TrEMBL record:
Protein name: PRC-barrel domain-containing protein
Family annotation (Gene3D superfamilies): Photosynthetic Reaction Center, subunit H, domain 2 (3.90.50.10)
Pfam families: PRC (PF05239)
Source organism of the structure: Kribbella hippodromi
Domain of life of the native organism: Bacteria
Residue stretches making up the PRC-barrel domain: 25-89
Length: 140
């Protein structure tokens, strides 16, 4: 990718900001894969502070009371459906389990390298690319 990755993604939990669309706040929702298998729960959201739009879901799975949980960042573009009960991702559980991991306790999120790798893995057009359109999937 030749486009420069924008800096400025922040954890929604670390701010007092609200999303442009409050219904986009899916923290705590169960996440399932396209195969119907449970993946985990949305731990937090990474947002673009300027546009106040969700860019990434931090999905935690396993562990006990959040301790030892594995985290995966999933581009919001991979979401195919959101209901009151769940968020469905357009990849299977095993595909998501093979995605690049993320440890919020041991490292800081480094947008340029991490985002290029992440969007490449999911085969998604990154939100900073020319012509990108925010996904128009059905929300609650």
């Amino acid at each position: 990718m030749t486009e420069e990755v924008p800096i400025g993604l922040i954890r929604l939990d670390d701010t007092d900001l609200m999303l442009a669309k409050p219904e986009d706040d899916v923290r705590g929702s169960t996440v399932v894969g396209s195969d119907g298998e449970d993946i985990g729960k949305v731990s937090t959201l990474f947002i673009d502070a300027d546009e106040r739009r969700v860019r990434l879901l931090d999905v935690a799975s396993g562990g006990l009371l959040g301790i030892g949980a594995e985290h995966r960042l999933i581009p919001v573009d991979a979401v195919v459906e959101v209901t009151e009960e769940k968020v469905t991702i357009g990849k299977t559980r095993s595909e998501i389990a093979s995605a690049p991991g993320y440890d919020p306790e041991l490292e800081e999120f480094k947008p340029p390298d991490d985002l290029n790798t992440l969007y490449g893995y999911y085969g998604m057009t990154p939100y900073w690319a020319p012509g990108y359109r925010y996904p128009g999937y059905p929300f609650r």
